[in-house]
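#struct-pred
JK: can someone run the complex with iron/sulfur cluster? inputs below
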Amino acid sequence: MPAADTIDAAAAVAPDERNPPAFGVYIHWPFCLSKCPYCDFNSHVRHAAIDEDRFVRAFAAEIATTAAQVPDRVVSTIFFGGGTPSLMAPSTVAAILDAVARCWTVHPDLEVTLEANPTTVAATRFRGYRTAGVNRVSLGVQALDDAALAALGRLHSAREALDAIATARKIFARSSFDLIYARPGQTPNAWRAELEAAIAEAAEHLSLYQLTIEADTPFAALHSAGKLTMPDGDAARAFYDLTQEMCGARGLPAYEVSNHARPGAECRHNLVYWRGHEYAGIGPGAHGRLDIGGERHATATEKRPESWLMRVEARGHGRVTDEVLTRSERADEFLLMGLRLAEGIAPDRYAALAGRSLDPARIAALREHGFITVDPDGRLRVTAEGFPVLDAIVADLAA
Ligand SMILES: C[S@@+](CC[C@H](N)C(=O)[O-])C[C@H]1O[C@@H](n2cnc3c(N)ncnc32)[C@H](O)[C@@H]1O
Ligand code: SF4
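RT: done, structure tokens with the ligand placed:
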């Protein structure tokens, strides 16, 4: 059986001078070579060359403006996401990392991840990223089957994806790749074989996402026209259980709903989000969470790349949203994010944020149904039974 309810919690490190609270910087690169029909990320295709120098100046300006608001942070993680950040020149990545280091102190054990699309992978470029300071790569492989890759609108073959994984492993000590499963027409047996091949290639981390139909994508149109048959609830559950079982047995347990790692090799940047720490969101359409004057601000920037550039050039940042979260919004977000993790949440942290404790009767009922467990110290964790209905569990606890 999947062991999501028995995975050890990562030790919670109490902040001190040597271990300041985690602080992440997310940098969004909003361009791709083509738009995949399932994807609703903020990504755009441009046929003209991108003026990377202009983007570097804008990223540096937005970093400086953000750092002026939260100056005393020690950056523990930086994540270049997209879009396709592996379309950036290594010198662009280096210049952005310099801007971060000019504005904040960086932790000596800084994690710097860059998302890469196999179509763009070249060893010289990867070495350039490594020289720039990137120390972890996350590849969007999606499938190890040529027909499935074509159906997903990907520009690379399975062979090219495997070559990209090999290149990433040769150049970076830490790497991960993403696969999408429960695809139209995929059988659990076919997924078993594909996942087996993936685990054999994996270094220390895998992100395994069930295909979701996102609104306003070509896949959504196909789906509503009845041309894309998705696995029903039971089949989706079978895919999920198979994934947990195989990864758990091969030393890559889930530490989050869709993320698997050898213990200690978790993506520290994503843990910043799930553990409710602060992060700066830089670049078009980036979201941030910043603590200013004792309040948590939820920030978001303009999504369209050219409009974002103009805003930053005019006022030093591209922010279009800056909202102070209420206590209950903050507490709900903490539940929603924290319960995704196998390590679960400490209810007293919820109580401190919400100003009220979780209802013991609701906890008891969820426990009785086998959806959550409660550690001797009170920590709540969602079980393998509970993960498929996580949203309902969160809604129940937060009510
Ligand atoms: C920003 S993309 C990754 C990097 C790069 N752009 C690429 O595609 O190679 C982040 C990941 O989200 C996942 N993803 C995107 N849309 C999805 C969807 N509709 N359902 C499931 N996973 C999805 C894919 O696995 C993708 O690799
Ligand atoms: S999946 Fe990746 S490459 Fe495809 S459109 Fe989305 S961000 Fe771009």
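RT: quick notes.
The radius of gyration is 21 Å.
The chain has a mean pLDDT of 93.
JK: thanks, will look after standup
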